[in-house]
Amino acid sequence: MTTHEVTAPALTNMLEARGVTRRQFLKFCGVVAASIGLTEAAIPDIARALEIGATSGKLAPVIWLEQSSCTGCTESLAQVGSPDVATVVLELLSLNYSETLSAGAGHSVEQAKEDTINAGGYILLIEGAVMEGWDGNALRIAEEKGTDIVAHAAQNAVAVVATGSCAVDGGFCAAKPNPAGAVGVQAFLKSRGINTPVVNLPACPVNPEWIISVVVDYLLLGKLPDLDKYGRPVLIFGQTIHDNCPRRGHFENGEFVYRFGSEEEAKGYCLYPVGCKGPQTYSNCPIVRWNDGASWCVEYGAPCAGCSCANPLKAGGNWVDVNAPFQKRHRVVKIGSWITQPSTIGAIVGGFMVVALTAHGFGMKLAGRVPSGAEFEKARAWDVKHPDKALFPKTLKKDGDE
Ligand code: SF4
Ligand code: SF4
Questions:
Q1: Is 309 a catalytic site residue?
Q2: Nearest C-alpha to atom 5 of ligand 1 is from which residue?
Q3: Average pLDDT in the 66-94 region?
């Protein structure tokens, strides 16, 4: 079967009714294939797997639960205002329940959720942090504790997909002082002794292509993707942003942006000095990109804030506590694949980096990938003496080393 033959009339009609062309749909299948490590040869299979849902409804049902969040992950998926392939595809996946997206409401849709749970065999997507505060009363939905809703729905699911950083480790909801006791889904289920496998898809918001790729991976191969130690799919989160960043050449050349609005920024130089967390953040954002592949953070000029950093079982490991303040740089950095080099080569490379970056005023002391919770660089002595010209004049007193 060729890519020209993969869309059956029922699917074609559904796509056209929503303003999505067959070409867009096949392009989307190509992105999904790349996310799960398959070549373009798999596009017809992916399209066919999705097509079955359009014509027979045999695909695994999906429940999407909303907990404490800004609904940004739903927005990321829905991408209001443009014909969006991911939205259509999720319809094909038999989305039986979603507080935000379901057309129905009230008892009928709650019954549909309950019927799905009782039947089993569904994938449970959870958006938002689980709120354990005040004995679970920090979040109540329709007179039920959010904690009870999550525990009930997770029991019978074939897999739970923690969708977005809040669901993974509490995200911004769990940032200090975290008065409402926000935790990630995996930590919560573990505390309740619920062993349903969890796939973590951090980022704020989640990339819709990641969701679809996990679901399609499960449908095509009958198994969940290989996961790293944080429960994230290796094929999506196996490399740093820095590894695939188009500004990487400027980093290597020591061409940096020190101020927004500068000539260096206009030239598209590396954003590391203004807080880019790309060197220590793992995800394929530069490859899959966002908004139907239109762009991504660094490409449109914003430093990576490290929103896909995750530590599901460690309190305080959320991306906000680890990476704020977002426009300050970490003290140390290591360059992607060099971590695999022999130690002597690594030392030479590290020494070279120290010399090169110190020459640019970084004050780095060694090269090494930044662990979660690494210190941020204090203000340079020069900045303290020249507050009118400093990179971050408002923070000098707080962070200065005088
Ligand atoms: S530090 Fe950021 S902007 Fe610079 S090359 Fe790495 S990922 Fe790109
Ligand atoms: S580039 Fe960084 S801040 Fe942007 S979505 Fe990816 S991980 Fe998050």
A1: no
A2: 248
A3: 68
Are 217 and 298 part of one and the same domain? no
Rounded to the nearest angstrom, the distance between the alpha carbon of 270 and the centre of ligand 1 is 5
3 state SS of 51: helix
Answer with the one of 194, 222, 237 that is the final residue of a domain. Answer: 237
Choice from 73, 201, 241, 272 to test ligand 2 binding pocket (greatest atom count within 8 A of CB): 241
Catalytic residue among 29, 166, 173, 309: 166
Please tell me the distance from the alpha carbon of residue 316 to that of residue 169, in angstroms, as a whole number.
9
Asked if 291 and 307 sit in the same domain, the reply is yes
Domain containing 193 equals: 9-237
Instruction: Please indicate whether residue 97 or residue 397 has the higher confidence score (pLDDT).
Output: 97
On average, the pLDDT of the chain sits at: 78
pTM: 0.76
Residues 225, 86 within the same domain: yes
307 noted as active-site residue: yes
The answer to whether residues 19 and 168 belong to one domain is yes
Range of weakest confidence among 28-42, 85-99, 281-295, 311-325: 85-99
| Single-letter amino acid, residue 197 | P
**Catalytic residue flag (residue 270):** yes
- In the three-class reduction of DSSP (H, G, I as helix; E, B as strand; rest coil), residue 122 is classed as coil
Name the closest ligand to CA 334.
Answer: 1
Q: What is the pLDDT of residue 331?
A: 56
Beta bridge pairs of residue 376: 330
Any atom of ligand 1 within 6 Å of the Cβ of 279: yes
Ligand index nearest the alpha carbon of residue 243: 1
| pLDDT of 202 above 90 | yes
Query: 310 forms bridges with which residues in the sheet?
Result: none
Cα 24 to the center of its chain, rounded Å: 23
Q: Which of 162, 164, 161 is nearest to 206 (CA)?
A: 164
CB 127 within 8 A of CB 171: no
Structural domain includes residue 279: yes
Q: How far is CA 199 from the centre of its chain?
A: 12
pLDDT in tens, 238-250: 999 999 999 999 9
CA of 269 to the centre of ligand 1 (A): 9
Is 232 close to ligand 1, i.e. is its CB under 6 Å away? no
pLDDT, tens only, 135-172: 999 999 888 999 999 999 999 999 999 999 999 999 99
Give the CATH number, domain containing residue 384.
Answer: 4.10.480.10
| Ligand minimally distant from the alpha carbon of residue 305 | 2
Q: How many folded domains does the chain comprise?
A: 2
